[in-house]
């Protein structure tokens, strides 16, 4: 190992809904994923919610699981980190209550500060002298990319998918430095996109065998965006495959948060139709409820085929209350499979349309295309 190469690589996958962290060194057979988080120390979770809450001025913010069900939490702010996109939203929705660029960057910096401090506490118990170690932090990517340094999987020239411009990457790097990263011998890197890292994972670990000339399409459906990678394997080495990108495919604004928002609108319309007197934020609370999130994540699984209705409790509504116009049965709102399918179909149809278009325009007719795996947030592609 070169004296300049990192001793430890930490991959941080900052997503719209959740953030994952994994780390590895040359002595580890595979990366170790952090699975114990504040507020959930007695349960395992491969990711922590990407949310932050400012309880009161001058007090350190809460983050992750402890503020999961608070109304005043800051969430889904990844989508606003691109100032151009935020300006487009303001133009398209002038009445929308959107944050300023400065607010969004503060939330990102403060959230990453919390992540940094927690990673520091975890790794110092594992490796000892934290500041003296050569540690490389890899951001905005799938945690499987931690493998790449140690396994020498090669992918052709790449740029970040979510944050494409150099200006955005530069501003995020500055915020990460302010959050505490890049201290001492620690460095910050932006590497493969999430979809490209998923392609590497599929090429190495899929049951499907890939050969020279095979084309691989990976669809990474996340919380806010869906990204794609179209790559060709240009070597026969299965241990250390070489993948070259055939086309740069822009991400689209399709993700599980759109499903959440569609559900919130559906609930709100039903409550109005039934004239149900409930708190103003009832639809929002039901959208965040564990019952809806569990039904969403398992929708499409054959085990749910026998379930006639998906029931989501209406907060503070007595179990004796039923309202046919609102679809409420004994204090719970009932949803059919068709109701849920209507939430998913617009998202899935856009993904399918883009995939078909890319296959028709970017892949030579003599090439076989393999779609080896899907990276998804709560089963959007189920």
From TrEMBL:
<protein>
    <recommendedName>
        <fullName>Actin-like ATPase domain-containing protein</fullName>
    </recommendedName>
</protein>
<dbReference type="InterPro" id="IPR043129">
    <property type="entry name" value="ATPase_NBD"/>
</dbReference>
């Amino acid at each position: 190992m070169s004296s300049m190469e990192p001793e430890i690589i930490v991959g941080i996958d900052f997503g719209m809904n959740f953030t994952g962290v994994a780390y590895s060194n040359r002595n580890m057979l595979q990366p170790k994923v952090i699975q114990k988080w504040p507020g959930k120390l007695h349960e395992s979770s491969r990711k922590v919610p990407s949310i932050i809450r400012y309880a009161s001025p001058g007090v350190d913010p809460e983050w992750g699981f402890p503020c999961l069900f608070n109304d005043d939490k800051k969430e889904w702010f990844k989508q606003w980190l691109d100032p151009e996109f935020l300006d487009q939203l303001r133009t398209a929705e002038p009445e929308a209550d959107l944050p300023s660029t400065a607010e969004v960057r503060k939330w990102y910096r403060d959230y990453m500060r919390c992540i940094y401090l927690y990673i520091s506490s975890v790794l110092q118990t594992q490796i000892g002298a934290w500041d003296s170690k050569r540690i490389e932090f890899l951001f905005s990517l799938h945690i499987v990319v931690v493998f790449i340094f140690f396994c020498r999987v090669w992918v052709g020239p790449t740029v970040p998918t979510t944050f494409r411009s150099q200006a955005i990457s530069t501003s995020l790097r500055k915020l990460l430095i302010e959050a505490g990263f890049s201290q001492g011998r620690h460095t910050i890197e932006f590497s493969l996109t999430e979809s490209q890292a998923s392609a590497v994972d599929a090429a190495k670990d899929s049951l499907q065998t890939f050969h020279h000339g095979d084309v691989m399409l990976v669809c990474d459906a996340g919380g806010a965006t869906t990204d794609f990678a179209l790559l060709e394997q240009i070597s026969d080495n299965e241990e250390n495959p070489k993948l070259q990108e055939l086309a740069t495919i822009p991400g689209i604004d399709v993700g599980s948060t759109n499903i959440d928002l569609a559900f919130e609108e559906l609930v709100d319309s039903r409550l109005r139709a039934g004239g149900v007197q409930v708190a103003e934020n009832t639809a929002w609370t039901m959208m965040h409820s564990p019952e809806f999130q569990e039904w969403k994540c398992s929708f499409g699984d054959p085990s749910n085929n026998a379930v006639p209705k998906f029931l989501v409790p209406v907060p503070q509504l007595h179990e004796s209350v039923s309202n046919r116009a609102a679809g409420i049965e004994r204090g719970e709102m009932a949803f059919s499979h068709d109701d849920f399918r209507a939430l998913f179909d617009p998202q899935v149809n856009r993904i399918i349309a883009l995939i078909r278009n890319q296959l028709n325009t970017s892949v030579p007719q003599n090439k076989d295309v393999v779609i080896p795996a899907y990276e998804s947030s709560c089963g959007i592609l189920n």
